[in-house]
Amino acid sequence: MNDGVRTQDIIAGDVFFEILEPSALEYTYRLRPAKDFGGTFGVTYKSPQGKLVPAEPADACSTKFKNADELVGNIALVERGHCSFLTKAINVEAAGGAAIIVTEYDTEIDDFDYYIEMVHDNTDRDTDIPAGFLHGKNGIIIRQTLKKMNLPYAIVNIPVNLTFIQPHLINQPPWLPW
Q: PA domain spans which residues (predicted)?
């Protein structure tokens, strides 16, 4: 079934990844990469078996992470708010993280259903790790599922090339149509 939508129209500069484990989260997810800071998914960071680790504390506004050892070489899943996107990325990089994915955490806010443009905070700082914004509902479900299953991380394949996959064949989360 093809409804006239092309995969290239869906991709539009976004980055995709898939969760390989746990099976309850085995879907393809969409990220909006940071506009003007950090590295690039697929160049600076790519992994067919990377770990997506929820940061503790979740806001990543400090370099003091309770789970710093788990962040080393991995992707930190952090929550939006309390400090700039760039500050979060710099803090994750300082802790040894290889990439950062920022997501909403509050289901009561108005922009829960939108992708946020992550921009530089106009300071003289920068980071080399890639950063992306994950749709809020995905982030909440990933965090809740990992917590419920008592898992410290999810195994991910990032980035995923969807160029030659028909849109209706993309294994997107059932709770969030693109």
A: 49-139
